[in-house]
Amino acid sequence: MVSIFKRVIFTVLQCTWGILQTLAGAAVFLVLIKRKHFIYRAGIGTLWSRGESLSLGLFFFVSEQSPEDRQNELCAHEYGHSIQSVILGPMFLPVIGLPSSLWCMMPYFERRRARKGRSYYSLYTERWANAIAEKLTGEKMKILK
User: Fold this and answer.
1) Out of 64, 77, 84, 118, which residue is the most buried by the measure of CB atoms under 10 Å away?
2) What's the structural domain count of the chain?
3) Does a structural domain hold residue 95?
4) Contact 50, 99 (CB under 8 A)
């Protein structure tokens, strides 16, 4: 359980140091306002119809298509990205967001992962998010390796 104090600090940091990604996340949240929302740790989660998940500051978006037993792990992983946002602030988008998005969405990288038998979670941005998630949530990232 995350204490109220930690939630307040997390929120203040996301709304100041991480304002760029939080504003982008708020915009996506507003577009998806009619979707199912929930609180995970100190972040605001939304189930969406896309196949991939996304973290933008205070907000994260998890695929509703994921099996229910995998959603906790995905939430923990996206929470790991939220902590990266707190750590990196305005550098989150170029250091984590852009490489992660390219790694996820570019067919070149999809083919390369398949050809070399590499997990999506082998990229430094994803490994680091998993490590943070395991440490802070206690969730074992067994599927996301």
Assistant:
1) 77
2) 1
3) yes
4) no
The answer, as to whether pTM is greater than 0.85, is: yes
* Structure token pair of residue 27: 């915009």
Beta bridge mates, 46: 37, 61
Residue 143 lies in a domain: no
Contact indicator for 22, 59 with CB cutoff of 8 Å? yes
Do the domain assignments include residue 116?
yes
- Cα angle 42, 44, 47 (rounded to 5 degrees) comes to 140
SS (H, E, C) 9-75: HHHHHHHCCCHHHHHHHHHHHHHCCCCCEEEECCEEEEEECCCCCEEECCEEEEECCCCHHHHHHHH
Rounded-to-integer distance, Cα 91 and Cα 101, Å: 15
